[in-house]
Amino acid sequence: MKPRPRPDPRRPKADAKAKGKATSGAPTPPPRPPPMIGALLRLPHEAVVARMQAALDSHGFDLTPTELGVFLYPGPDGRRPADLARQCNMSRQAMNYVLAGLEARGYVERRDGNGSGSRVVRITERGRKAGAQLRRTVVDVEREWAGHLGAARFAALRLTLRDLAAWLGKLD
Fold first, then answer.
1. Of 64, 55, 75, 58, which is closest to residue 134 (Cα–Cα)?
2. Residues in the chain with pLDDT values less than 70
3. Are residues 107 and 132 in the same domain?
4. What are phi and psi of 18, to 5 degrees?
């Protein structure tokens, strides 16, 4: 076994932090970069969706998180299954499976559309009640956020997001 070389007494000892090590000997992780716009949009969205899911559950609506996606703005009423599939980022086959479950539990109906072979989704009374609960929940969230941010900042946030959604072609 080779002997370890002795440190040169003429050279100053390296600082542990300068070597990227904490005093415990474990490497210090690099600083986390600030969140980008995607995360800043996603994190509040996740909080809203969690509140909507909890409100549905507590009021006896048995929608899964995937099924909840069908009810997000602008909702399923009068829309084609293929459009809902795009909104929910899934295949048409998967959306038809989701719609079959919603239909079996009385939230929606699929009916013939105006075109040849086209189908549209119609919301039922139970689906309308679930949608109304979702809107009440989001109104509560908006009220809380306006209380936290202040009315002017919340109004500016809402207007900015609306302008951005319109510019992206997601709102009329």
1. 55
2. 1-24, 116
3. no
4. -65, -30
Distance (Å, rounded) from C-alpha 157 to C-alpha 149? 9
**DSSP H helices in the chain:** 37-58, 65-71, 81-87, 92-104, 125-149, 151-167
Is 27 within the bounds of a domain?
Answer: no
Q: pTM of the prediction?
A: 0.78
Q: Quote the domain boundaries for residue 68.
A: 64-123
Q: Judge whether 99 and 70 are in contact, CB under 8 Å.
A: yes
> What radius of gyration, in Å, describes the C-alpha atoms of the chain?
26
Rounded Cα–Cα distance for residues 99 and 58 (Å): 22
| Paired tokens of 116 | 């040849």
